[in-house]
Amino acid sequence: MGTLDFNVLMRHSDRFLEGFLNTIQVSIMALIGSFILGAILAIFRISPVKPLNWIGTGFVEFIRNIPLLLVVFFFYLGLPALGISLDGFVSGTLGLTIYTAAFIAEAIRAGIQTVPRGQLEAARSSGLSYVQAMNLIILPQAIKIVLPSIGNQFINLVKNSSILAVVAGMDLMYFADLVNSDTFQPLSVYTIVALFYLVLTLPLSFLVHYMERRFGQSDAEARSTKGKPKKNKPAGQVTM
């Protein structure tokens, strides 16, 4: 009980594998959903339309200031009182998506505010609608600026997926609890689980750092190119 026994992984590989695959599935779905919802909420938060601004601000501030567990319990325990029953997997995925979206919205909003306002005005004057200007001009720049922050939120999302174990969401932690109840080897079981999570989070972390360096280099090159003075051709020079 007090020593590491990695044979637990071999004896219960089917459970660990199922939980690992379910965790990947939850993470991907919540990642895509939270990014889309977060971008929409960020646009709402800076929208000149007051009702949209109120909705975006109220949603983000409310979700950011309550525990993730409460959001998941709303779907798992609260909706059945209204006649809507969801299993633990769906409830956990929805809760994780909405909770993460609030933090991504704040990150994207901060990025949008760093983009010079003149770019939005120029896009509008060229005939683009507010939504088109945001999607085509402002958001790409904002996301590029806050990519490290968004990447960290995605890493937190993967780790927070362990909340599904509380509502029998069939994730990695849920099956780890089952294995531990059968083997009574918590040190071995949860060390193996930690390694599984590292398999998911470390590549994400390296990818975020790589993209951050890549974008930083491209920005530096763009600034250096922009700052170089143009050479004027001598009068009378003929270009072949």
Automatic annotation (TrEMBL):
The keyword Thylakoid does not apply. SUPFAM superfamilies: MetI-like (SSF161098). Coiled coil: none annotated. Its main location: membrane. Residues 20-208 form the ABC transmembrane type-1 domain. The keyword Chloroplast does not apply. It holds the Pfam family BPD_transp_1. CDD domains: TM_PBP2. GO terms for biological process: amino acid transport. One of its GO terms (cellular component) is ATP-binding cassette (ABC) transporter complex. The chain crosses the membrane at residues 20-44, 65-83, 89-108, 154-175, 187-208. InterPro entries: AA_ABC_transptr_permease_3TM, ArtM/GltK/GlnP/TcyL/YhdX-like, MetI-like, MetI-like_sf. Belongs to the binding-protein-dependent transport system permease family. This is ABC transporter.
